[in-house]
Amino acid sequence: MEQQHTGGARDAIVIGGGLAGMLAATALLGHADTVTVIERDRYPEHRGFRKGVPQSRHTHILLTGGQRALDALLPGSCTALVEAGAHRLDLPRDILTRTPTGWPRRFDEGRHHTLSVSRPLLDAVVTERARAAFADSTTHVEVREATEAVGLTGDAERVTGVRIRPRDGGAPQTRTAALVVDASGRSSRAPRWYAELGLDAPHEETVDTGLGYATRRYRPGPGGPPDTGVNIPNWPGSPRGGCYLPVEDGAWMLTLAGMHGDHPPTDPAEFLAYCATVGDPYLHSLVADAEPLTPVHGFQDTRNRRRRYERPGASPHGFLVLGDAHCTFNPVYGQGMSVAALGARALRDTLERTGGPLPDTAATVQREIAAVTDPAWITAVGADLPYLRDADEKRSVGERLTAWYLERLAARAALDPVVGAALRDVFCLTAPLPRLFGPRIAARTVLRPRRPALPAPPTVPEPVRASGARA
Ligand SMILES: Cc1cc2nc3c(=O)[nH]c(=O)nc-3n(C[C@H](O)[C@H](O)[C@H](O)COP(=O)(O)OP(=O)(O)OC[C@H]3O[C@@H](n4cnc5c(N)ncnc54)[C@H](O)[C@@H]3O)c2cc1C
Question: Transmembrane ranges (predicted)?
């Protein structure tokens, strides 16, 4: 027999207690009387892996834009992450990134620090801090573990609640609420639930390079850990890439990635052999004598996919979607968690600004979430377009010109601190894309001669003068 729990006009439900869900619940503090977080998994006792976040076995970095959003919602989180073992890696000083023309100069810029930490540790620290904020708030927050959302209630005009099912086999329930937030990640079933309410599924855009990931954790060998992290991305003509970055407890993570189905194997010997075939032998030389700590884990759904819930008439009142449920990115750009945090911050800021009833604010929040997602979407999709097999036939003259410009800009950024800083500002999600097309950057990109980057990884950082603008 189905049980019914009736919520009030200031009650909210968040589906998914992952990163986006915990931050969405935090954003609702003070704006709702109650928040119920529905999480399918049980949280692990110790900062461990859980099934609901399968990508957490792979390298995860948190960009500057995401760090700022996280700290705005849960102050002190980045410091807590570093205290727990995360590495603060200055870009480009502490991560050497190979480009198609060679190695970039190693500027000691002090402008962007990326956080490198295992995903289970990051989730655990964020969840602990979110729970502490819940305990301090006038909003009553209940986190229901081992409970699955299986549908929405309401109609095409208005979502009124969620149908949930305890995973231990207890009776299904309906919980009503003024606002339902879907933060259930890349496996979100919201499009199917829309159909059940009599709504069309939201318009969906997909750009897929067919990239596959495989990751293994290591302890550095007798020679000690490398001085820097290393990133050798894929580039046209070199479809295999990889990165090697430090995480907590003295461990390093090696992630390999290959495009168009040329995926890295999960057999340990073949994985290492694949590592030797990425665009530069340096990566393999770093891991050859390292001690493996885990099996090799694969992951294959890496497409860029966004659903346009913000379009007029696309969504009912009282419902909004954020995090991977809204938009996923090719993970090589390291943006997804940052965009989830930016979306949650947009939720909080919109509620603070409008102060309106929860169901009616949802549409405004969804537009704000789309707006903070745009820069990451445009950069990820723009960077992936050259890898699509039919890219040339599909691209307009304007798109080809932009691709030419951005390719030239990336080559220039390897040697030029001003262009490099602008590129990092955009990729770290602290500046909008037009920053790359400003007169100063355009002049240096187009008028200065094109030169190859350095022939070998630079061993010594180079001090640079701050370029003025805040990152
Ligand atoms: C291989 C890989 C590497 C990545 N690397 C990076 C990186 O370096 N940097 C970065 O910023 N991002 C990276 N990402 C993206 C990042 O993992 C996601 O953007 C991020 O996890 C999104 O958070 P989320 O809370 O929306 O989803 P998730 O973290 O996936 O959480 C979803 C939650 O919802 C729960 N859930 C699902 N369905 C239901 C249901 N029906 N009922 C109740 N609960 C449910 C799940 O159990 C889970 O707890 C990577 C992604 C992949 C695939």
Answer: 12-32
